[in-house]
Amino acid sequence: MAAIVLGGVHGGVGKSTLAKAILETLRSQGCRVSSYTVGPGLDSFQCSSSQPGQLPQEAVGLDGWLLTQDAARACFHSMSAEAELSIIEGCLGMFDSPSADGSEQGSTAQIAQWLQAPVVLVVDTQAFNTARGIVALVKGYTAVDGSPSVAGVILNKVVTQSLAAEVQAGLEQSAVDVRVIGAVPKVENSTCDSSTKSTCPWSPMSNSSTAFGSTLPGLVQQHQPCIDEQCMVELVQQHIDLQQLRALAATAAVPRPQAPLPPPVRTFRVSMGVAYDEAFHQYFQQ
């Protein structure tokens, strides 16, 4: 069962934007793709994303804090039964977790380990002046004891076209078996409300205005760069090797759960109203 985890070296590197664009691109090519997010996630209220009378079909949450290892695997196998490829979008940095004891419980690394799925690291290259710093960072992520398998790197917000080749050469010289599968250029001159971005509820960046998708008057809204979705899809098509991404995903070996998810219980025929607006919109589809 092919699966890939998009993990960030820290929050804000562009995982959500890339994951959505990769999904749209693969689906436009006829590939059956299932999507997941690490943690519950707090997506923005988007009423237009669903048909009247239906809840929106968002990515499924795989939460190491709420689920056991076996339940997460059962959920994955159930939701990915008809998929050719599954993409799991990480939360914050790969090893960041809500745990106060320094463990990886609830982190992207934990979910990747549970699913035994390879990780593609997303690096915001704006923070580096040379390729050598990126090579050192990637090498460090591969060297952490017990870390999941880091198989690829996507360089995001790239300014210099030669950066990908320089990073790949540096990784090979450092004997790091990780492939650069994409170098997405930086795009300027566009802003959007940060409340439209997914965020973990325990993230230091979460607050009352972003964590609950609120647009209440008087709340200060911060802005961060974003770009048009179609533009991002075109960038993915041009600058990410999707064939190589699919080849890496094919190396996943997601263990079968000890017990499948229990079947839904249908004892009574009832009519139930589900609130769905700016105040009530965060639901687990599974």
Helix content: 25-40%
Mean of pLDDT: 81
Strand runs, count = 9
Content-based structural category: alpha/beta
- Categorize the overall geometry: globular
How does this model look, in words?
The strands form two sheets. Strands 3-2-4-1-5-6-7 form a seven-stranded parallel sheet, sandwiched between helices. 28% of the residues lie in helices and 18% in strands. Helix 1 (15-28) crosses helix 7 and helix 4 crosses helix 5 (163-173). It has helices at 15-28, 69-79, 108-115, 131-143, 163-173, 208-211, 229-239, 242-249; strands at residues 3-8, 33-38, 60-62, 85-93, 119-124, 150-158, 179-185, 191-193, 223-225. With 286 residues, it is an alpha/beta fold. It has eight helices and nine strands. 37% of the residues are buried. Helix 5 links the parallel strand 6 and strand 7 (179-185).
Highlighted features:
28% helix; alpha/beta; 9 strands; 286 residues; two-stranded antiparallel ribbon
List the helices and strands and how they pair.
Elements: E1 3-8, H1 15-28, E2 33-38, E3 60-62, H2 69-79, E4 85-93, H3 108-115, E5 119-124, H4 131-143, E6 150-158, H5 163-173, E7 179-185, E8 191-193, H6 208-211, E9 223-225, H7 229-239, H8 242-249
Parallel strand pairs: 1-4, 1-5, 2-3, 2-4, 5-6, 6-7
Antiparallel strand pairs: 8-9
Helix pairs in contact: 1-7, 4-5
